[in-house]
Specification:
alpha/beta, Transketolase_N, 276 residues, Thiamine pyrophosphate-dependent enzyme, 5-stranded parallel beta sheet, globular, THDP-binding, two-stranded antiparallel sheet
Length: 276
């Protein structure tokens, strides 16, 4: 029996907590990929607050959904989501990227709630496809959600997995593309154009849904949309890198940043103002 999802308001509360903890972790001397972490905060909030069934290794593997963070550099957002939902303690987030910490600069399988060690970009969709096909083979009611960076799509293995997923009719696979339009070298369209991105996924045989990646109603509707039998789903989430962080909002320098105490206070104040 699948667990009941929390109330709708859970996602709103989670989004605030996730963004707050990302900002707090950005004080680490090793820096946090604050841009790509903040851009997926709302996606993770809806997933963990309302959509995922028995996440974080809760219950038998046949009765839960899987979340794979392919863009592992955004692990600060995942750690924040796990802390906000009680899988790990919030206090542990203070150890981010320290020697001996379970919270490495990319998510490691040793941490509860991490399905696979990721961060070698381009591999997550293949892992998700494997989970989805295994679930179908053994008659399990499971879904695989894979969060991908848009710059990551320049890795050819993604399109091999996309082609295979459509061929095998993996309709329990959901690819979520964080379309914040930045990669480490600059704007994605300047480095290697991805558009028309919707047409690309559709051309591989996927159902494609485009949403505002910060609008919970749109995200919720996409994730809860009825399955289209025989077709995997791609959700293109239009997001803003380092959304709401003063000085880093939609900029290249937000890719990896260490915020000093004054910058963190400013960012937390901006978050509090947004909440108000």
């Amino acid at each position: 029996m699948l667990t009941q999802a929390p109330p709708r308001k859970a996602a709103e509360r989670l989004a605030v907590d996730i963004r707050r903890m990302i900002i707090e972790m950005s004080g680490s001397p090793n820096g946090v990929h604050i841009g790509g972490s903040m851009s997926i905060a709302d996606l993770l909030a809806v997933l963990y607050g309302e959509v995922l069934r028995q996440p974080a290794d809760e219950g038998p593997p046949d009765d839960r959904d899987y979340l794979i963070l392919s863009k592992g550099q955004a692990c600060a957002a995942l750690y924040a989501a796990l802390a906000a939902t009680g899988t790990i303690s919030e206090a542990e987030c203070a150890s981010y990227a320290e020697q001996g910490s379970r919270l490495a600069g990319h998510p490691m399988k040793r941490l509860p709630g991490v399905e696979f060690s990721t961060g070698s970009l381009g591999h997550g969709l293949s892992l998700g496809l494997g989970v989805a096909l295994a679930g179908r083979r053994y008659g399990h009611d499971k879904r695989a959600f894979v969060i991908l960076g848009d710059g990551e799509l320049q890795e050819g293995s993604n399109w091999e997995a996309a082609m295979a997923a459509a061929h095998h009719g993996a309709d329990n696979l959901i690819a979520v593309v964080d379309r914040n339009s930045w990669q480490i070298s600059g704007r994605t369209e300047d480095c290697m154009s991805l558009e028309p991105l919707t047409d690309k996924w559709a051309g591989f045989g996927w159902r494609v849904l485009t949403v505002d990646g910060h609008d919970h109603d749109q995200i919720r509707a996409a994730f809860n949309a009825p399955v289209e039998p025989g077709r995997p789903t791609a959700v293109i989430a239009r997001t803003i890198k380092a959304r709401g962080v003063p000085g880093l909002h939609d900029t290249k320098k937000s890719h990896s940043a260490t915020l000093d105490e004054a910058a963190r206070r400013l960012a937390l104040a901006a978050l509090a103002g947004e909440r108000a």
